[in-house]
Amino acid sequence: MSTGVRQQRAAATRTKLIAAGLSLAERTGLADMSVNLIVAEAGVAKGTFFHHFGDRSEFLLALHTEFHDRVFAEIEQTIAGMEPGRDRLLATANAYLDECLRHRGVRALLLEARVDPTIIEAIASRNKLVIQRTSPDFTAMGWSHPEPTAAMWNSAVVESALLELDTGTHRPEVRAALAQFLHP
């Protein structure tokens, strides 16, 4: 078997394991998501899991990355062509909140995983990226301290996602309150 074929099969197996984890996240919490359950869901041997992921923590990081890559892709599609400013910030926030609701189980699982040092590092990295991407919106709106404002905005959006996660539904009053923060 050629190296290219082996690499393709390995990538497909890794993708299958991540898909199994995302699927399980919709049905079970972090405490119940065992390696045995993941490999059973994916239909692979337990050794295969450890071939692709050094440990459960590395697997959770892969789930975190996959979830947020999907969210960022949805946000980018939503705001494509929009000028920096309030409308783009609100469109970004709503796309994020909608994706969190669409994948409540994954989001809940990732919240449980926030105590894992690897996940903490990934969150910090994602937050930096969000701040870089949203600072121009605050600059366009004339805010004098765009980067700290973007960091606080990010926190408010994440907190809004938690409020919606608690009820499992879109909460117009939470989103309206979030929009009120954007008045200078």
Average pLDDT: 90
Q: Please state the structural category.
A: mainly alpha
Question: How many alpha or pi helices?
Answer: 9
Largest sheet: none
Topology pattern, helix = H, strand = E: HHHHHHHHH
Q: How many individual β-strands?
A: 0
Per the principal axes of the C-alpha atoms, what is the gross shape? Answer: elongated
The end-to-end distance, rounded to whole angstroms, is 62 Å
List segments where confidence is low: pLDDT < 50 over at least 5 consecutive residues: none
Radius of gyration: 19 Å
Roughly what fraction of the amino acids lie in strands? under 5%
Structure write-up:
It contains 9 helices and no strands. With 184 residues, it is mostly helical. The longest helix is centred in the middle third of the chain and has 24 residues. It starts with a helix and ends with a helix. The model has no long low-confidence stretch (mean pLDDT 90).
